[in-house]
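User: Predict the complex with LLP.
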Amino acid sequence: MDHFEYRDGEFHAEEVPIVRIAAEVGTPFFCYSTATLTRHYRVFADAVKDLNATVCYAVKSNSNIAVIATLAELGAGTDVVSAGELKRAIVAGVPAAKIVFSGVGKTAEEMAEALRAGIRQINVESEPELAVLSEVASSLGIEIATAVRINPDVDARTHKKITTGKSENKFGIELSLARQVYNRSADLPGIKLSGVAIHIGSQLTELDPFREAYSRLAEFVLTLREDGHAIEHVDLGGGLGITYGDEQAPTPKQYGDMVTSIVGGLDCHVTFEPGRIITGNAGLLVTRVIYVKDGVERRFCIVDGAMNDLIRPTLYDAHHEIVPVREAAANAELAEIDVVGPICESGDYLALGRALPAVAAGDLLAVRTAGAYAAVMSSTYNSRPLAPEVLVNGDQMAVVRKRMSVDQMINLESLPAWLGSVSGAASEIGA
Ligand code: LLP
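Assistant: Here is the predicted structure with LLP placed in the model:
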């Protein structure tokens, strides 16, 4: 459920008409709903309330500091995967004691920053990483709660680019090797090897792969305890899928009940790292039609949003609903059209063969379910500045990321001395 709907024929984010935001910030832009973020966080937290649990929102799905702060106010911790995300979480007011640091390639510098900030836990994905963490932590005189991410070799049955729990994936340590890793590493200084972590993929629309993976994890915790390790916490990752089109995803309650039945008896603190389920349906990408072009075989709706703003359709064959901001008549005829951006690539589309009511240049379209893995994955390809982000709360709106300017983009660049003769042109724009 989300808080984007038509009111009197105009698409609204909560009580704010989208057309008003477009007039203020221009297009394309991202728009997020506080009520939707709040609802999704609460539903998830409620679903796992019978466990001793911390919900650590996966910042990678939407790292705007206003989004993080909205969730932090509700009590969320965060899962971060880089020094950049760590900084964002801290700036947004997340207590360090609720920050978990995951990721397959943390550098010693990133670890040191996280340890100095006093974060709760680090999830480690290889033996060499354990060795580096031990060195960094002991040189800082810190002992950090550490979990090893295991790879259970379970097929998450999701898109191949977002499957992470098969043994051919780069993530975690395979179960068959992990026991020895714990035994070899238990005495490493600076590390309290007290947890086990897992994350098998994203946008899972079935419970079975989770059930299988979590059961293997629970069994592994018992094995580790038999080996003498004091395992006190498990981190179950994220991955719960959402509805983009017609897929049926399990509800947070069904997920929570399943988890509780598997790990409830382990006497462990449980961390969850949900991303998409919190932010996915809480965002739109709003774009304006530039041209409608009739080809021999297809019709194209050329819009000012593009693959640099939302790469999911072309990268994962993802479906995102698209609705006109001004509601079409109930009996409006639908015709198939490709909604494409201005970028010079055939892969630059937001939807192919989509049945839409008649569209014309100047119309606004809202691309739905663009709260997760949209703005965060955007780029400046074709020198298109990053789109602004707007957060709505009831009848209020705030620009929470300004539109980048072309000059800001160019100002990071400079001409080397040997191209001095053209540097006048560069200095004219302030480079
Ligand atoms: N924890 C870890 C260790 C992760 O790698 C991820 C996502 C999450 C939690 C959050 O997963 P979620 O609850 O959001 O499914 N760009 C792709 C998704 C990549 C997910 C990467 N890891 C997409 O647009 O579908």
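The chain is about 30% helix and 25% strand.
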